[in-house]
Amino acid sequence: MKQLEIDAELKKAGAHAKGRFGELRFLARRYLLGTIGLVIMIMFILTALFAEWIAPFDPLTVNAKQALAAPGALHWLGADSFGRDVFSRIVYGTRISMAVGIGSMLLGSSLGVVIGLTSGYLGGWVDLVFQRLVDILQALPLLVLALVMAAALGPSLQNTILAIAIPLVPTVARVIRANTLTLRELPFVEAAKAAGMSETRIALRHVLPNTLAPLIVLATAQFGSAILTEASLSFLGLGIPEPHPSWGRMLSESAAEYVRTAPWLVIFPGLAISLIVFGTNLLGDALRDILDPRQRT
Amino acid sequence: MLSYLVQRLFLMLVTLFGISLVIFALLRIVPGNIVDVLFDAAGFVDPAEKIKIEKDLGLDQPIVVQYATWIGGLLRGDLGFSYVSEKPALAEILPRIPITARLAGLALLFAVSLGVPLGVVSAVKQNTRLDYFLRVVSLAGLSLPAFWLGLLILMASVALFGTIPIYNAAPKSMWDSFVMYAVPAAAVGLRSSALIMRLTRSSMLEVLRQDYIRTARSKGASERSINYSHALKNAILPIVTIIGVEAAFLIGGLIVTETVFNIPGVARFLVEAIRWRDYPIVQNLVMFIAVVVVVVNFVVDLLYAALDPRIKLGA
Amino acid sequence: MSGSQARTRAAISIAVALAATAGLASPVLAQKQGGTLKLYQRDSPASASIHEEATYSNNVPFMPIFNNLVVFKQDAPQNTVETIVPDLATSWAWSDDKTKLVFKLREGVTWHDGKPFTSADVKCTFDMLMGKGTNKFRKNPRKSWYDNVSDVTVNGDTEATFNLKRPQPALISLLASGYTPVYPCHMSAADMRTKPVGTGPFKFVEFKANESIKLVRNPNYWKPGRPYLDGIDLPIIANRSTAMLGFIAGQIDMTFPTEVTVALLKDIKGQAPQAICKFEPSNVSTNLIVNRDAPPFDNINIRRAMALAMDRKSFISILFEGQADEGGALLPPPAGIWGMPKDQLETVAGYGPDVKKNRDEARKLIEAAGYSADKRLKVKVSTRNIPTYRDPAVILIDQLKDIYIDGELDVVETANWFSKVARKDYMIGLNLTGNAVDDPDQSFYENFACGSERNYTNYCNKELEKEFDLQSQETDPAKRKVMAWAIDKKLQDDVARPVIYHSRLGTCWQPKVKGVTVMVNSSYNGYRYEDVWLDQ
Question: Do B255 and A236 lie within an 8 Å CB cutoff?
């Protein structure tokens, strides 16, 4: 389906692109913003993977002499009140944001897929029960539910991921269920049924792959929300604990003390959060245009 | 119609009941309870006293009894007592609601008056540089964490005016009161306006593609008249829905913004109460938020039906 | 008129002119009545009852409501026995054997609700503190202060006597603390938590959690002409940055005492140079609680190594830009009365100036315990999720790396901290200890006596405890001081609760606020505010 869409796009644009590289170049030009988003995301992924090589300092090492040093040649983005290098902390913080973003997205989406698929495919009382569950989760704003869950589970990386993943479930479940309902009636599913394929097999083999497109679009958006929610939780003191350099935590410390005296402590972690979410949003928009033409803007 | 209403109301009750269960259960798995927090200020925990206080607060009861007590009270309009202030929970929550409501109202006003026109412009000028620019700006707006935006506004306010609006329960003038709320409202509203702009744009585009617009165009109606009288009128519907959705979206922004600007509203109160393990406050506040969200969604659905004759409820 | 006469005249007229100038100046200095002081409150107190809490977040807003029997003179920066002045008691006297303390009470004083104050109120208050009587506190954190009081008896309405089990000269200092107001007999403990009634210069108006506390002048205050202020408004501003901005912008008259850090102080000096700021010791020590009952810290060598490895100067330079003090359990001089002098302090392991030498020694000790650069010791450093706790913990972990200890920070939510400590579910904990009264009795019995509630580590040394009692009974202050030094040194050498530093913190106010005194050896006792006035 994905491939089909891209081909259609290519034809529509009358591109005479030849070969893989040509296709890519065409896509990059057609979806310039999406490409920028992709580049931003790749940049962050590389940063997370190679933090040890990129960061000039250890993110946890305290250095009294450099406390609150302003941005300069030694500390590009300044140093915090312990003299820890802000740039290095942001670089290492990428890992936390990525872990939370990817972890919550995967967990939330898989739960959502399971619920949506079962609900849509089986129908009946299973559907009824799952839909009420989804209603319940959806009646609470993301941050409210995440706050209560984070408090209930206690501050740690795993718990933060869980606290953010659960509130992400309903949206995915809704979309997958709606898609499944439509797909269930389609001829090829009927055909598979007639051929004697088991229900589970049909659901996994035929229905699930066909819901991938909207799922990818949703998951991208959820990656962004997860990062923003983690930042808010940490800002409120309920997310990732010290000494891990979570961007939200870095902001909550500096917001309380250094808004005036060391503004770089407020500006740079916030910029990092905004940039990664911006990248996700750009990419998400482009993916939606490519994969989900009904929603095209 | 009537049967639809009854069904919807029933489902709403089921949802609210489920939320009460979820919240109640979540709060009971929180490690540490109010008694430990109360003792925090005393610098130690006295085990004998702890048991006594737990008894006084009813925390020694079986969970089912605690739940029944809460829901029973809730149905009678008795929300129990705040563990911390020992005042009725209602007396703690109620006075904070208008503060948050004012903030949310202003934020929504800000978001709509900025988001809708920009969304329309963006749709009408689809695929122009202006459209491109507005889309990027709105995406960027959505990417900023609300509390960071608040902090930046605080910093800018200090740099420009040398001061910041500090919450004051009894502002000296209307203007003071407006400034006090307007600045944080802008911080919340800016993000929402980005969302509203994007959704307005897409629903406008949807409408602009419709047959009757093509017809109007072929009949020689002016572009301006098509855009603003035909298209916008029809796009209003989805926009109403969006604003409904916004209500839930706003609450997240309000929580962090009230914290940044030190506004004693109901949203920040939730965070404080969670920190204090003040169950009666947290439970009732979360229920309150859920009721607001559920009711807003319901009203939006009704409004939708009322505005659009094509939609038949219950169909 | 001779020349000399003329000169004399001239001299006199200059003198008159000077006198006149002085006369002109004095009305400016004369206290003015009226105005509301706006002082920001740093957090929302758990309740309005001073007796039930153990943080000066309660003393600052609520001490103005009350009177004590006696009180530390509010305009003397250093609390000593000599600065104790009458409050609700007009005079006091020790019996010859120093086991009875008799107070003569002020007559004609009324509570804010109009009921008369009598000796019965004194008895009620201290009976409650001792856990006697029917009216009980929900929490009673300073019960141990009165362990040595057998009972309080009254003689008529105007005399109350504290009967002691043994002589304890320090008792009068405990009674003079901001922590020891007299409560009315006719109010329940629960009422005192929500709408306190006192005899003090200000009446309680309202306390809205997380929003504000309001006090208003008590027109019937027994001290004529006091207070000067019409009221005190305490908006609760949890975010320090916001609060400081409000102060700089002039929307707030005075910061919450001790809330101005070195960095903020610089900012205030730059932005609001007219502000008056004091940066003083607070008698709050940052220390380590070490779980000496479980490995690895049951090994005295590992405890010693840790004590040796601490570079106190570095803590002080990072967190206070050099402006804090090294000391033992007792606040060091000159602000503190009882702390070890510098030369004696430097004989304690880990306090000497040569950090490298100390660390070499520490490494030897830890190697003897079987650890090395390849076989590092992993420990958890637990602390509360509050910056003043977390910040030194981060530095500690960094310093321990040098002696093969890899610390992992374990940040504990307030809700779980004390129960975790009580369960001994920690290896090292970073802790803050505030001393309300600068007196060895308060510090030793509260933090190091066997079985005391706030002795978190259950450090129990019966031999040393005998020395606690000996110093407590000593009536000659000079002798008592030497005894206290010896005990403090033993506590430090035994790594009972190693002290990292004694913090100094700032308080600022606008120039129009007059009559504020910041105390240098306690952060709990100087908030009556009856002498504060606004020059506007």
Answer: yes
